Amino acid sequence: MMHIGTGLVCGTKIRDMVQAGFHFIIFLADWHSMINNKFGGDMEKIETAGEYFKHCFTALGLTEDKVEYIWASDLAEKANYWERVIRVAKTTTAQRVMRALPILGRDLKTQEAADIFEMSLDLACAGIDQRKAHVLAREAGEKLRWGKPVALHTPMLMGLAGIQGSEKGSYDEDPKLSSVIAAKMSKSKPENTILLHDSPELIEEKLRKAYCPPKIVEGNPVIEYYRLLAFPTNQTVALNRDQKYGGDLEFSTYKELEEAYKTGKIHPQDLKSNMARILAGLLKGVREYFDKHPEPLDQMQKLEAK
Amino acid sequence: MSQQQRLELVTKGTVEIMQPAELERVLEEKKKPRAYWGFECSGKQPA
To answer: Do the Cβ atoms of B27 and A26 come within 8 Å?
Structure first.
């Protein structure tokens, strides 16, 4: 199921890009998923998941009149696409490709680079954990004289458990980046993530259990969600609070909110309950969309239940 | 929308642009540049 890292961080950025005049392609990498043996390499299941993703982005306002949806399998059908993949691979040493094989597993960076050139892109977006693929694409583009795509990287969204001291991983040579990737919304831990389809009650419950140390901002996922999810989509952010605890507050910048939290003017519980309300609001349109179109969600749930 | 507004909208909330000068050139030269985001079709999604 799609989590809010994909839905809200990517969704918001794509909306920005469309507004800035980009022709934006949401690329459904079914072929790559097949190579990566997702759903046992069963193309039918992979396509069901892709359709579900398309519905999620549509529900987030990225309708087909605003963005173009392209399936990787449509590119892979063309003979010259595979020539591109091989030519990109030849620009780099085998060791280099192995290093670029990310991070969380098995992906074909050469193919991602080929996708970029096949679609004549000026710019490629991804989470910061995918930057090596773009470095490879830029170098290959230069060597092959196919042009160098601009790369845009978004932050990873921390999971609800946050980053607590000893947390580290071996996802990247850069230990800081590695810990961020380690703490990102991982779907392997359902209690650690908020899904696009979580009910307001479930969001509240999950946030209640979230890591949120008083006055501390580092590694605190709740305040991080204000920075990455609440402020980018709102001019001002209001915190509703019981009169006896000081009443409502309003902030026009993230920095002001951060200062107030650091100095203990906001209690973690108020930070959490208001984030639950804000997230439920941001996801309202998605809930309504899937109430009207339950089929793609049902199918995805069936796939994931297996 | 001015070039500056477009640039701000694109860079807002990002952690890295490779390279900012190249992005500015793309925005100057093209009214409708082409961009993408790829998503694997699986349960697991890099955010």
So the answer is: no
